[in-house]
């Protein structure tokens, strides 16, 4: 069993890959990729064997944070060093948002917010029909909770008691134009999921031990779908990006890139 | 002339039952009674998913099922399959997901419910999506062939099924031919060609009969595969006629007329085309036959369109 400390070091190496990718592309969504990477690292490390034919799935419903997923696919040998320099370039498998047609290992084609939880439900239903014991993880943003389809899906997952479905909400409190509470206040997301019939808990999405424990509880829960509301910091790990809405969608150029590398070097597991 | 008629929607559930495979899943949007997918629910309750009144999520769920190797048929009214869930269908096409949409109540088939429920745009909405195939049967046998085709061929597919009655043809030249592409149904001569989609068969046939009674000799050509449009087959059937009339239970924008004219536009010369269907307006409530007649879809309109050229 890999330790929380080692997983955190892995996640921080993924942070470096994310920053490098977006620097090279000079475009992307660094803030949301950095806020979700600790969660994503834990999900893949504990329950997703990317080289198995039948396995647990990860739907990046917040598809704009796909650099985080690419960093993990790279670390698992799915993407080469050379490909990591082709994010958002013509003929690359690394599209701006996940596309299974080009890169099946991303599991779901997303990018239009709100649709991933429903897709995850379809996968979870299929696994139940097929007697496949694996899980389906759907990773959403908190801005995405504004989408009505999320709540259609929340009701459906509870209706069908999908115990193999886990929704992780990367609650970084910022969407494209500002604080989500100022755009449309999500209020208490865990309370809302519970009202829809889910088991739900709120954790610190940058505390690796808390993440591991919550995922363990989610997998053990057989009552129905499980939501983990993870409080995170947008841009986590890069000083000038943290809680800064300007880095929702942005390249990372020049001196700022150098600064980002220095910040990441200072983290545990940094180079 | 009395013609035997049939409403294809009555065969939706029965056809899915007849072609059931272990991978098949049928999804509903709280309309299984109206679409007749209830017949499938009764026989295969463990493969039937009631999504409730939730078209967007229902189509995304079907996409997720497809990504895990199932063959999902999302069955709903035409407008709900295509319009209410358009971006969800679009993402399924982008993913090349094995999603099947099966709709009833196309065009003005649901006359009394009015314009909110009329689907005069569904062909246009589906036709612009890369990878989407569109199949339109006009008989229970063709419906079965279309569903079998959808199961056999990987990728997104839209099957449009009449809710209103269509005539049962006993004298079609295409009887016994494999489903797909364009079919020559009647061939009396080259005065005109009526090119139609299956849910508009009643108006097409009545128009053909009226023209025949008036002494004109033409052809009736059914387009079974609206996409990919069988341009070459259609050209061989229409290139020598004096004029063409398209007949569709749909807007004349973006549907069958659009597909045919796009195909003909590349020819140095071609017969003139008149378009029968809804002419860029919202319809209204009424008995279905009256609504269709008011908004341009009747045998009379077909005959008039031929005479106009």
Q: Can you give a write-up of this model?
A:
The complex is a heterodimer of chains A (271) and B (309). With 271 residues, chain A is of the alpha/beta class. Chain A has a single domain, classed as Rossmann fold (3-Layer(aba) Sandwich). Chain A has nine helices and seven strands. In chain A, the strands form two sheets. Chain A has a five-stranded parallel β-sheet, sandwiched between helices. A two-stranded antiparallel sheet of chain A has the order 4-5. In chain A, α1 crosses α3, α1 (4-25) packs antiparallel against α9 and α4 packs parallel to α5. In chain A, 52% of the residues are buried. In chain B, β13, α11 (256-264) and β14 (273-278) form a beta-alpha-beta unit. Chain B has 13 helices and 14 strands. Chain B has two domains: 5-166, 3-Layer(aba) Sandwich (Rossmann fold), CATH 3.40.50; 171-307, 3-Layer(aba) Sandwich (Rossmann fold), CATH 3.40.50.920. Chain B has 309 residues and is α/β, with parallel strands linked by helices. The longest helix of chain B is centred in the first third of the chain and has 13 residues, at 55-67. In chain B, strands 3-2-4-5-7-6-12 form a seven-stranded mixed β-sheet, sandwiched between helices. Chain B has a five-stranded mixed β-sheet with strand order 9-11-10-13-14, with helices on both faces. In chain B, α4 runs parallel beside α6 and α9 (201-213) packs across α13 (299-307). Chains A and B meet through α4 and α5 of A and α4 and α6 of B.
In short:
The complex is a heterodimer of chains A (271) and B (309). Chain A is of the alpha/beta class and 271 residues long. Chain A contains 9 helices and 7 strands, in the order ααβααβαβββααβαβα.
């Amino acid at each position: 069993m890999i330790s929380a400390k080692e997983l955190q070091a892995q996640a921080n190496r993924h942070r470096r890959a994310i920053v490098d990718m977006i620097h090279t592309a000079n475009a992307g969504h660094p803030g949301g990729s950095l806020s979700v990477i600790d969660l994503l690292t834990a999900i893949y490390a504990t329950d997703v064997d990317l080289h198995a034919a039948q396995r647990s799935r990860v739907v990046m419903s917040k598809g704009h944070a796909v650099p985080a997923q690419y960093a993990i696919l790279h670390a698992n040998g799915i993407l080469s060093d050379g490909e990591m320099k082709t994010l958002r370039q013509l003929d690359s498998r690394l599209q701006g948002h996940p596309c299974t047609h080009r890169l099946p290992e991303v599991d779901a084609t997303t990018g239009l917010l709100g649709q991933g939880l429903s897709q995850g439900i379809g996968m979870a239903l299929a696994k139940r029909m097929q007697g496949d014991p694996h899980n389906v993880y759907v990773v959403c943003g908190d801005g995405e909770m504004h989408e009505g389809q999320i709540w259609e899906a929340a009701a459906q997952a509870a209706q069908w008691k999908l115990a193999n479905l886990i929704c992780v909400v990367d609650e970084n409190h910022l969407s494209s134009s500002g604080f989500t509470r100022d755009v449309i206040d999500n209020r208490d997301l865990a309370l809302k999921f519970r009202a829809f019939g889910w088991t739900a808990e709120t954790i610190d999405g940058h505390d690796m031990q808390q993440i591991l424990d919550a995922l363990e509880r989610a997998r053990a829960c057989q009552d129905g779908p499980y939501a983990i509301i993870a409080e995170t910091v947008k841009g986590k790990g890069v000083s000038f990006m943290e809680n800064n809405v300007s880095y929702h969608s942005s390249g990372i150029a020049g001196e700022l890139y150098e600064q980002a590398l220095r910040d990441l070097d200072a983290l545990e597991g940094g180079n | 002339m009395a013609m035997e008629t049939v409403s294809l929607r009555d065969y939706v559930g029965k056809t899915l039952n007849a072609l059931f495979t272990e991978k098949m899943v049928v999804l509903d949007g709280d309309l299984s009674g109206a679409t007749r997918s209830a017949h499938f629910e009764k026989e295969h309750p463990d493969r039937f998913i009631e999504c409730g009144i939730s078209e967007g999520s229902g189509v995304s769920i079907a996409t997720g099922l497809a990504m895990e190797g199932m063959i999902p048929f999302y069955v709903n009214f035409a407008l709900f399959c295509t319009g209410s869930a358009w971006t969800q269908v679009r993402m399924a096409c982008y993913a090349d997901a094995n999603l099947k949409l099966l709709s009833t109540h196309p065009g003005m088939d649901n006359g009394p419910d009015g314009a909110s429920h009329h689907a005069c745009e569904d062909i246009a909405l589906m036709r612009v999506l890369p990878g989407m195939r569109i199949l339109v049967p006009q008989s229970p046998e063709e419906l079965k062939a279309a569903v079998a085709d959808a199961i056999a061929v990987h990728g997104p597919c839209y099957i449009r099924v009449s809710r209103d009655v269509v005539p049962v043809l006993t004298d079609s030249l295409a009887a016994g031919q494999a489903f797909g592409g364009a079919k020559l149904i009647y061939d009396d001569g080259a005065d005109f060609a009526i090119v139609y989609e299956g849910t508009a068969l009643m108006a097409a046939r009545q128009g053909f009969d009226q023209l025949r009674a008036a002494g004109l000799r033409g052809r009736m050509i059914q387009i079974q595969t609206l996409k990919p449009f069988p341009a070459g087959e259609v050209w061989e059937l229409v290139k020598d006629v004096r004029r063409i009339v398209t007949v569709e239970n749909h807007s004349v924008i973006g549907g069958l007329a659009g597909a045919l004219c796009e195909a003909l536009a590349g020819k140095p010369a071609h017969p003139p085309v008149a378009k029968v269907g809804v002419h860029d307006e919202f319809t209204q409530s009424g008995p279905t036959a009256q609504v269709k007649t008011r908004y341009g879809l009747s045998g009379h309109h077909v005959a008039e369109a031929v005479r106009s050229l």
